[in-house]
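In response to a reviewer's request, we include the raw inputs and outputs for one of the modeled complexes. The two entities were modeled together in a single run.
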Amino acid sequence: MRTLITRRYRNLIGALAALAVVSTLAACGDEGDSSTDATNTSTAGIAVSDVWARNSPMMATAGAAYMVIETSTDDALVGVAVDVSVAGKAEIHETVMSEMPAGSDMTMNSGMPMGTDMSTSGEMTMRPVDRLEIAAGTRVELMPGGYHVMLLDLAAPLELGSNFDIVLTFEKAGDVTVTAEVREEAP
Amino acid sequence: MALVGVVSLAACGGGSPGALKGIVRDDPLDVGSVAVTDVTDTGLYSGEDEQFSFRARPGHLLVVYFGYTNCPDLCPTTLAELRAARRELGSDAERVDLAMVTVDPERDTPEVLNGYLSSFTDRFNALRPVSEPELVAVEDAFLASSTIVKNADGTIEVGHSANAYVVDEQGLVVVEWPFGHGKDGMANDLEFLFDDMN
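The model returned the following structure tokens for the whole complex.
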């Protein structure tokens, strides 16, 4: 009896090990282990959800896309790309306060400055982000007023109800393609 | 009527806003005497400079915003929030007017500015300072500022105060909305102010 259980257990361990190897290999590419449904995508450890972009006002040449990224292993977003039929260029940017008003006690909460005595309104600006770290078990949200995928030289206005693909490049997980829904506000 | 500090009133049922959620200064900014070039295309714009004064029409509230049309994140977000907020006001939506001052008049021509704003509301004034001193004078009145940096590679970076300012008939800023105030916060404040005016 004892010998029989050990053999079955050994087979189970072998099967799990083989599965682990397959999962690890899949993480190096974007095939096999991915599942995509509308705005949610997961690829071996990376899970992207609620991908959306704001519908364009007339005359706008720039736009932005937002999303939530989670990962089970430490990783970093190092690049973004869209097809030229969407925009000429895509970059990761962060909206930041470039100058704090003097004499105020300000804290930032979800991009909203809270002050007790604001003398002047600080300027907000954007800066490019080369590498957006996403620690295992944390949730990084690209949202208005914070990190976002900036779309430059829009080929055409982003229309409500349409969608387009964004290729996210991660340091470890590699390329992950997500689909952004064009909406008036976050899902 | 000057609104000093945060006024807390018990809501007497019916869901009326009990207080302003935005920022209220003890000494409201007086912007009524500042003028800026108005390029709003109502079919009447003929290239001659009209001047706009920052005072709401009678019975109305004027929301003033500084921004630029190539803005990918802040400006469309705030203007979309205002659009959504107006939808929550029912008939009072017609009493909310928008005036946007472009901090990037070089790229924001009258045609571009009018087209951009028409995507958010049909009740707007497109304001386009024709000189640096004119822009600075308007910004100073609102204690706002902006910076344009032109990089060697041709890219342009624009920083600007991202608050929205609600101005009354007398030309006083009755409440300020920091970026992220949101459609519910805006609707709350506009309803509160209209209740106070009625």
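As requested, we also summarize the result in words. Chain A touches chain B at residues 54, 56-64, 93, 95, 98-99, 110-115, 118-126, 144-145, 148, 150-152, 184-185 (CB under 8 Å). Chain A has one domain: 34-183.
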